[in-house]
Every structure is written in C-alpha cells, then in structure tokens.
Design goal:
The complex is a heterotrimer of chains A (314), B (102) and C (484). Chain A has 11 helices and no strands. Chain A is mainly alpha-helical. In chain A, helix 5 packs across helix 6 and helix 7 packs antiparallel against helix 10. The N and C termini of chain A lie far apart (55 Å). Chain B starts with a helix and ends in a 7-residue tail after the last helix. Chain B has a single domain, classed as Helix Hairpins (Orthogonal Bundle). In chain B, helix 1 packs antiparallel against helix 2 and helix 2 runs antiparallel to helix 3. Chain B is mainly alpha-helical. Classes of the chains: A mainly alpha (314), B mainly alpha (102), C mainly alpha (484). At the A-B interface, helix 1, helix 2, helix 3, helix 4 and helix 5 of A face helix 1, helix 2 and helix 3 of B.
Amino acid sequence: MGVAGVIFDGLLALALVWLAWQATRAADLFHAVVSFIVFGLLMALAWVRLEAPDIALAEAAIGAGATGALLLSALDRLASRDGRHRMLYEPATAWGFWIPAGGALLGGLNLAAWKLPAPGLGEEVLASLKLSGVDHPVTAVLLNFRALDTLLEIGVLLLAAVTIWSLGRAPSPLVPAMPSPALPALGRLLFPVFVLVAAYLLWRGSHAPGGAFPAGAVLGAGAILMLLAGARPWIRSSEHGPWRWILSLGLAMLLAAGVTGSLFGGAFFEYPTGIAGPTILVLEVAAGLSIALLLFALYLRGEPCEHGYRGAGT
Amino acid sequence: MTVYLSLSGVLFLIGLHGFFTARNLLRRLLALNVLTTAVFLLFVVMARLAEPLDPVPHAIVLTGIVVTVSTTAVALALLVRIAGRPRDEDDDAVAGPRGDAG
Amino acid sequence: MIPETTGPVVLFSLPLAAAVVVFIRPRWSVAVTLASGGILLATALWVVVAVLRRGPWRQDIGGWTAPLGIGWTVDGLSAALLLLMAAVGLAGAVFHAARPTGRTPVRDPRFFWPLWLFLWGGLNALFLAADLFNVYVALEFVSIASVGLIGLAGGSAQAAAWRYLLATLLGSTIYLLGVALLYGRYAALDLALLADGVEPDLVTAVAAALMTLGLLLKAAVFPLHFWLPAAHGRAPPAVSAVLSAVVIAAAYYLLVRLWFGPFAPLLGPEVATLLGLLGAAAVLWGGLQALLQRHLKMLIAYSTVSQLGYGLLVFPLAAAGAVQQAWTGAVMLVMAHGLAKAALFLAAGAIVLRHGIGRLEALGGDQQGVVVAWVAFAIASASLVGLPPTGGFVGKWWLAQATLATGGYFWLAVLMLGTAFTAGYLWRALQAAMRPGWETSGGLQALSPALGLSALVLALGAALLGLAAPIAARLLDAGSGVAG
C-alpha cells in the first residue's frame, strides 16, 4: 500500500472518529447532523480504500445524501416546533463506567476480530459467476445468489413508506424556505443529469460496480432536489393514480420472479435457464425505479394528500 | 487493514456511548447510525482480508445500507410526531377515559 | 400432487403479495386479508402435516446451495410457529374487521391492513429463514411493521413505538455485529453449515454473546424488558395480540435455534445457568408487576414478560441433561402462551370497548355483549396458569419432569412460584367481572359477536393444544436439532 497510503488511511480514520464524536456529542444539533453527513461522505472514501466501489456509491447517495436530506428536514420541523434544540448540550456522564467498560469491549472485539481467518466466499462466487447471468460479482450476489435478501429489502423500503404514511399526512408546506434563490434553477438544470447518471449506473451494473442500488439512490436524490427546487410533489396517495402501483413495482416484480421459478418446477427464485441475464436486467430496472421513488416517498414524511393540506397528522 | 479494524471498534464504542448517554432523541438516532456503520465496516474489512476479494459482504452491506435508511426514515417521522408532546410515564394519565387506547 | 416445497413459497409470498394489493386497493382490504388469511392457515396446517409425515426438510432458494445461496428450513419448530402466526393472524384480522368503527383507537384504518399483512409476511420469512443475514433483514422488517402498527393507536402509543423502535434497532445492530464476526471466522451464514463447522473458540464465543444479547433485548427478557409493557399495552388490541404472542416468540425462536444449533458446543453449565437465572428473574419480576397493575391491558402486557421467562428455563435444564423434555416443554409453553395471550388481548380489547375504560375496578357490572369474551378470558387464563388439560399444563408438566430428572429443584421452585403469581394476577382480572363496576358513559352495548368469538377460538386452541400433546411432541421432535 505504501507509506502514503498508510498515512492517508490513518488521517481518514482520525477524521472519521472526530466526526462520529461530533455527531453524537456536539452541543448544537445542526452541527451534529452536518457532522454526520460529512461522516457519511468520508465513509465513502473509506469504502473506496477498502476496494468496495459499489458501497462507496451507495453510501454517498443514500448514507450521506438521502439520510442527510431526511435528517435536515426533520431538524427543520423540530426547530420550528420549538426553539429549544440549541440548548441541548450533552454533559459527559459516567466516565468512570465508560472508560473501563469501553476499553474492555474494544479490546475484546479487536482481539476477536484480529483472530479472524476471513476465509471469504470469493472463490465460490467466481466459480458460479458464469451461471449467474451477469459479470459483476456484487450484482450476481444481490440479484441471484441472495435475491431473497434483496426482495425483503425492497419490502422494507415499501413497508417504511407505508408506515410513514400511516403516521399522518405530509406536512405543509412540504419544503422549508429556500436557503438559496439559485437552487430552484440549479435543481431543474441538474435533474436530467441525475437521470442520465442513474441510467448509466444501472446499465453498468451488469459488468462493473453500479447497478440498481446506486442508480435508484441517485435518481431518488435527484427527485428530492427537484422537490427542493419547488416542483410540485407528484406522488399522490390516491387509489386511482399510478403512484401506488409504481411504488410497489419492485416488490411485486421480485415476488413474481420468485414465484415463477417455483411454478415451473424449479426452486423459489430459480431463474429459467438461459435467460437469467435479461431477467436480472428487468428486475434491476424495476428495483432501481422502486428504490428511487421509495426514497422520495420516505422524504415526504407523511401521506401526500390530494387537495393540498387537509389537517395535520399530529 | 489494522487501521480500519480499529476504526470499526472505536466507531462501535462511540455509537454505543452516544446511544446510552445522549438525552436528545435525534442524537440517539445518529449514534445508532454510527453503530451500524461500524458493523458494516467490519464486514467490508473481512471482505478485503479474504483472498480473492469477497463480494458477499459487499452485497450484504448494500442491503444493510438500504435497510438502515428505511429504519432511520421511520424513526425520524415518528420523532417529528412525538416531539414537543409531554413525556408520559404514568399509565393512568395516558389511559384516559378510553382506557389503554384499547 | 403438489410438492410440499410449495407450502413455504405460499407462506412467504402470499402475505407480501396481499399487502401490496391492499396497499394499492384499500377498499378490498378486509376481503383480501381474510381470504389470504384462510389460505395461509390452511397452508400452515398442510406444512405441519407434511413435517409429521416425511420429517423436516430444507429447500434452497434459486437453486443455489449454501454457503453461496440462502435456504429455508422447515422442521417441527418452524412449522409450529408458522401455524401459531396463521392462527393469531387470522383471528386478529377477524377481530379488527369486526371492531366498531368510529370510536376505535386506530387513527387511520386504511393502513392497518397492509401493515398487518407485512408483519405476517416478515414473521413467516423469519420462521423459514436458515441464513443469519436473511434473519437480520426479516427482523428489521418485523420491527418496522410492529412500530407502524403500534403507532396506529396514536398519542402516547407513538412515544411507546419510538422507544420500542430504538430498543429493537439496537438489538438488531448488536446481533448483526455477531453475524459479522461469525462470517469472518467461518465464511458461512447458513445455520446448518455453521452447526457442522463451529468450534468453541474466542471469536465464536464473542459472536454468540453479542447475538444472544441482541435477541434478549428483542425478546424483552428481564432486565431488558423496559420497552415492552407500554408498547404492548397501548397498541390496538389485535396488534397487542400479535406482538405478545408471535413477535416476542420470534426472538425466542431465534435464541433456541442458535443455542441448539450452531452454538450448542458453547452451551456450558455457566452460560445455561445465567440464561436460566434471567428467565427466573423475568418470571418473578413480570409476575409481581402484573399483580400491581391497575389496567387490564397493562396487566396482560406484564404477564408476557413473566411468561417468556419460562422459555429460558430450557437452557439450564438442557445443559443438565434433560434436553428432549426441556426442549419440548419450553416450546410447548411458548406455543400455548402465544394462543392464550392473543386470546387474552383480544378478549380484553372487546371488554374495554364494552366498558369504555380499561381500569380493573371499572370492568364489573353489566356484561351484556362481552360474556363470550369473558369466557375466552377464563379459558385462556386456565391455560396460562397451567390447569389440565390445557397446552399450558402440558408444557409445564414436561418442564417439571425435566427439573425432576436433573435434580434442578431451584428451577422447579421458580416454576411453582411463577404459577402462583400467574394465578394471582389472572384471578384479579377475572374477579373484576364479578364486582359492581362503574357506571361509564363511554361504553358500547352493541358489539359484534365476532370480537368475542375470535378470542374464544384462540383460547380453545390453547386448551386443545393440551389434548393434542402427543402430536405436538412428535412435531417438535421432528428435526429439532436436538433429536438429530
């Protein structure tokens, strides 16, 4: 790795520790949230250093981007509810407990982790990669070997959106006051770029880092930006509109793919021989679109209503 | 890799400490996210240690990141709804005439 | 002839598909939920019969074998819990469909149904999963669905939902850390594969400790039970029923799966005694708290803390040698508790609707419309206390035999004392029906008979479980990981 690499890793680690500390301890909540977002961005660098570009993409778009947007808008609501959030300084407590207990835990964990032989499944994945229908190992794991995890995960996203809608209607106005007058124009300008990047990532996913997850996240981030730029929230909760269909598309397609396997005498999720590649591509498009829309739906923080504001959920 | 292995441990500790000592609800949620990141880091370090590079933990962490953003979003939506409401520890006070909300 | 492997496919896919349908078309909610609930109950029965006939089986997803692929395990234990979920899921849905609209605590009735079906699907996925990370995703699925359902009651229930969410997320994260260590050690996530390869070394021990801690938090085992009573006591009745009966049992199910599977070599007398002492403390503390409660639903919620403690007695008894008896006894108790506790919560839901208030002193007087609910309450109480011939009696009898076989008289004392507490607090609840009660204005005279009947069916199920004890014993022996 070289000396420079080691120094870089060391500095990155120190910065991450400092940011994590700020995120959990900073006196000001806004400061804490921003520290957390920067922490996510720097984690993306760490993922790159660990040769995990897929995770780096997802972390930047979801871990820092979407989560950051969610945190900031929640903070905005909390702040407008009461102005107390600035005085919530966290006093350091019970050091007599935390220093010895933490040291023991850290020592135990590291001792355990050091002894890990980490055999890995790299060989097995490479051996089965030809049969999986795609060339990129991570995509093969996500949508073929462990497709059941991916199904449940898309389910978790949809379930989270339903849960958030069940808590009440979306707040009104949806968007806080614009921090910068240039943002609306910039947002509109950038949206096509987001779509292009997402499409590129999706296409790339079959043979290189990319795929449905980063693509969906990028598209979702673009949609949130459009919302911030003043676009009307075009997801409606109405039974008649197509939005509920599109939100459910990813889960429905994955379920259909799974059941089709067993209908034709194979196992659950066994793709028909020969067309695993195209099947995975279709599933990726559906999953990517669902992830984008669901991230956007999560951001609305409530059920979007048909005719503007119809009473708060609280 | 030693650096990242230690980083994972330290982040886990910071997250745990934050979760148990923070009084502000949003900060506890941030601490929980730091905690989860530490676990993801451990997965990826193990993928890197394996020979050849192991893609399975990468897929696991990708799934984990999406799951985490979902839980965080639900927690935030809930937090916004309950913030500002007085804490109710007394069962009598909340049960009210309806009786245990049931 | 349809192969048995179709059963798990239906149990996994149908609730999720139905959830999507009722999310898209809320008007069809009740019909779709009840229809798919009926199919799920029939399928779960079919799977139970299949396990009895041909023994446990394992099916691979996507045709990929472990370690690369994910599998489903269907054995006596998972089949039993799938059946429990189907019974409680259907009864709860009937109760909720029959509830009087207008003055129910559910804020937004449209969202109850997709959340209910999602919870069902998540729990079925959990009971089928044979892969540690798949279990994690299913656990998160169940957590979010539970939080959504608790939050439907609005008001203070949302604060309880928040506390539950944080506790359960912390539990899953600690669990996941253990999974990461195991993966780094063995490069396997499959339960059967791990069970073959595990060695009792430091890494495995740390992983086992972390995963157990995470699951104990999720199972609300004393002293990690702080979040349970408020969350279970304030949720809508059907939700309380499924949370106490099945969601808690799911965390316990995983503990049993792990400690009688991969971690079996680590189950020394010290670990087992520690887990058993936690269970004993839960039995006594939960029982004491239940005795002190003034609200019907809170009393039942604390009873869950107490009853789950019995389940943990399996560890010291199994470590002392009585593996088979302790194992069947404890699982039988958890099953009987599931049916009885769901019946109690549904009955309590109907009773509280009738009187308009949940305080014990107020529940007496005119019981018109809820006589069936009180009967269900009494039958479920009999099973919970352990009167013959109920399922609760059989479970306790088997556990008591295990304590006698191993000379564990301390555990026998816990069992007896816990039974005394249970009888005490349930008697308090039943006595309330006989008292004069309060004149309340909020009560309802005309309740649908389906409310009481759904509770009665579950209570009878708990009672009949005792008569079906030989079948249950055979089922639980089937590939339980100990019979092997």
